[in-house]
Amino acid sequence: MKKKIPTLIKVLVLVIIMLFLLFPIYWMLITSFKTNMEAYLYPPSFFPKNFVLDGFINLFTQNNEFFVYYFNNFLVSFISAILTCFVAIFAGYSIARFNTRWSKIFVAILLSSQMFPIISRMISLYSMMSKMGIINTRSGLILAIVAAQIPFCCLLLSSFFVNIPKEIEEAATVDGASRNTILFKLLTPLVTPGILAVGIYAFLMTWDDYLHAATLIQSDNLRTLSVGISLRYLGELSYDWSLINSISVIGTLPMVLVFFFFQKYMVKGLVAGAVKG
């Protein structure tokens, strides 16, 4: 009996933590099915008195801007994930295989870049991109986001390349394979879990990005979902909480689906990289 008490305490603590973390999601979900009047009730109702779909109906019939933001968000996230994986393959392989003084300096630069918050480099980033003429463009936003994600993704993927035996490459070289052939046809399939982990991480981080999009995009037709919601649907005096939470539910679905279908690859990739590295 005495041995079961610590276990019960641990379970109770974990349940409390999970309830604390999941309650905002629950509140978002039930509010999306409330009327706007009920959403303002005090004390609040923890379960909708009447399930209504007014928020979702208004979203799909009266708010065409939402789909523009949604498309922009998906496009930017998808392209950013592809570019991040492409760069991480080359950089991760070079970090793992070329042990020179310059590679150590390169790793030190990547690590040091992770020490500073994104907001600390936004002024210089805006100035540089303004001189290049890519402010208020999707391509500029994508490049800025990819640059912010590359350090972590490169270091993550390098841990997978490090643990592939060099004898495999040496045997392929003896058979006449070029370095590009070895990298793309031999090694890349072996680090697929790591590439998937990098791609999913990049997609989820870009989907949830606010700071880059708010700083670098001014045109309404180019805004991503998080910025579009905050500027168009959040008023100064009152909020349509039913509509806002309906938008939040629809906006959260891609992240939930991506993580649901690819969670084993992502967890496998992150854990394997941490253990092997």
Short account of what is shown:
The longest helix is centred in the C-terminal third of the chain and has 36 residues, at 241-276. Helix content is 75%, strand content 0%.
Walk me through this protein's architecture.
The structure is a single chain. With 277 residues, the protein is an all-alpha fold. It has one domain: MetI-like fold (Orthogonal Bundle). Helices cover 75% and strands 0% of the residues. The protein is built from 13 helices and no strands. The chain has helices at 4-31, 36-39, 54-62, 64-97, 101-113, 122-132, 138-162, 166-174, 179-187, 192-207, 211-216, 225-233, 241-276. α3 (54-62) crosses α13 (241-276). The mean pLDDT is 82.
Largest sheet, strands/sense/barrel: none
Q: Give helix % range.
A: over 70%
CATH topology (level 3) name: MetI-like fold
How big is the Rg?
23 Å
Could you tell me the strand content as a percent range? under 5%
Instruction: Write down the secondary-structure element order.
Output: HHHHHHHHHHHHH
Shape, per Cα inertia axes? globular
The whole-number mean of residue pLDDT values reads: 82
Structural class designation: mainly alpha
Distance between the termini: 41 Å
Q: What CATH architecture label applies?
A: Orthogonal Bundle
CATH class: Mainly Alpha
Total helical elements: 13
In terms of per-residue confidence, which ranges show pLDDT below 50 for 5 or more consecutive residues? none
